[in-house]
Amino acid sequence: MTAAMFRLKRLGLAMGLTVGLGCAQAQGGDVALRMTTLLAQPPVTSADDAAPAGHWAEQATRWQPGSDACAGAATPPWERLTLGDALAHTLCQSPTLRQAIAEVGAQTANVALGEVALWPTWNATVEYSASRNFNSSGAAGRTLDASLGLSWALFDFGQRSASLREARFSLAAAMASQNNVLLESVRDVMRLYGEAVVASAALDAATEAEATATQTAAAAQARYEAQVGSQIDRLQAQTALAQATLERVRAQSGWENARGKIALALGGDIEQPVRLAEWAAWVRPGKDLPDLASLRREARSQHPKLRAAQAQVDSLQARLEASQAQARGSVTVSASGGSSRNWGAAGAGNIPVGNAAIVASIPLFNGRESAAQQAQILAQKGSREAELETVRRDVDAQLWQAHQALLTSRQSLLASERLLASATGTYRVAQGRYRAGVGSILELLNAQSALADARRQRVSALVDQLTARTQLGLATGRVGL
User: If 0-12 CB within 10 Å is exposed, 13-18 middle and 19+ buried, where does residue 355 land?
Assistant: First the structure.
């Protein structure tokens, strides 16, 4: 496993997973640090909070294919595939994430244009002209003019600053959308990896059940050959073994399907052998259940969907202010200075030239157009505000469901532990009684069936705990620890 993917796994991608990786040594590029730098930014509450132009363009390139952050994720370690391995490879190869990064770059350029508009515009001109009169005098002249000028909008009722705020909030919306793309990518990878975990665990449980049935069949066969057991006992044990073998074959088929899906999703061949890393340690429940009120506050402050929707509302408010300022006009100062040199009959020599002007521009008879533009922006803002409220409710609903699922899975996990311990003890007692000749084969087969079911229940509880903790982290919108 490469160092970059190890650190991404150690980060856990803030899905509430506690991964025991203290024995591994991390070297090379720190993918986790770059992910948090790029994606775990504080929410933007004002135009001044947005990152300056150029910052996000530099950060975004770290997750482009071929970058240092993605160099270690070129080939997943198929022999011990971790969740972090799958996530790192997917993020570095995701076209949707690259598209979101490109959108951030475009909005960054818009912010830069808005910042440039606040400063004066300089221009230099050089003009050469020649003239000749085709009359009796035949006079001719040549002129060379050179000047340097500037133009600066001194006062525009806040139009330029409002446009800059709009660009910055649009950038904040693009960054939040990028984070949401990351969340969705994590969700998709978690779904595929979770299916593989379920299939692998089901195969392990079925293999253990087959081994137990094999022991029971062997004991029944030995008793039958020793003429202390009946033919019906031997046949019933063999039937149970055949059923366990059938379940193991079905579990093997389920694992192969899940393995092929995750191999294809990570860009490998469908026949690529895959082995999952140990995952049971991830789902050990913590001592305390996360506080729902704290999670709601965290989700409302940092969930990418909410941040994107809020930034879009703020961007439209800034656009409305810019439209209102545009209707009031502007005051612009312009000045230029230079020199003009003439040759010919009209005279010769250098003539200094200079001019300055203050221009007040006030739109007239455009009230209807301005009112229509502002009404359009207000309608768009109202639509975005309604969308923001819808997203807020969806986030609360997902968080509540994930929290309840985690609570249920914790209780189920503890109950499954007790069930497995009880079923294991019952099977050992029934096995000992049968070997001692005081127990029946039905008693042993019932205990064997109960043990197999307890193992399946244990696996199901472990997977439910893993899924619930993951979904709770994603519902909170937490991208980095």
Answer: exposed
**Sign of the four-CA dihedral 58, 62, 63, 65:** positive
CB atoms inside a 10 Å sphere around CB 137: 8
Q: Give the pairing of strands 140-155 and 330-344.
A: antiparallel
Give the count of alpha carbons within 13 A of 132, CB side only: 2
Beta strands of 300-417 (E only): which ranges? Answer: 330-344, 349-361
The type of residue at 62 is R
pLDDT 10s per residue in the chain (481 long)? Answer: 333 332 333 333 333 332 222 222 232 233 333 333 333 333 333 434 444 434 434 444 555 655 666 666 667 788 888 877 887 777 777 778 788 888 888 888 888 888 888 888 888 888 887 776 666 555 666 788 888 888 888 878 888 888 888 888 988 888 888 888 888 887 888 888 888 888 888 888 889 889 888 988 888 888 888 887 788 888 888 998 999 999 999 999 999 999 999 888 887 888 889 888 876 666 666 666 778 888 888 888 888 888 888 989 999 999 898 888 888 888 888 888 888 777 765 555 677 888 888 888 888 888 888 889 889 999 999 999 999 999 999 999 989 998 998 888 888 888 998 999 999 999 899 888 888 878 888 888 888 888 888 888 888 888 788 778 878 888 888 754 3
Structural domain boundaries in the chain: 3-119+156-328+363-476, 120-155+329-362
**Separation of alpha carbons 213 and 207, rounded Å:** 10
CATH says 3-119+156-328+363-476 is which class?
Answer: mainly alpha
361: left (phi over 0), alpha (psi -120 to 50) or beta: beta
Question: Whole-prediction pTM value?
Answer: 0.65
Architecture in CATH of 120-155+329-362 = Single Sheet (2.20)
Do residues 293 and 127 make contact, with C-beta atoms less than 8 angstroms apart?
Answer: no
Q: Are domains 3-119+156-328+363-476 and 120-155+329-362 of this chain identical in fold? A: no
Residues with Cβ within 8 Å of residue 147, at least 6 apart in sequence = 124, 125, 336, 337, 338, 339, 353
Separation between Cα atoms, residue 455 and residue 369, nearest integer Å: 72
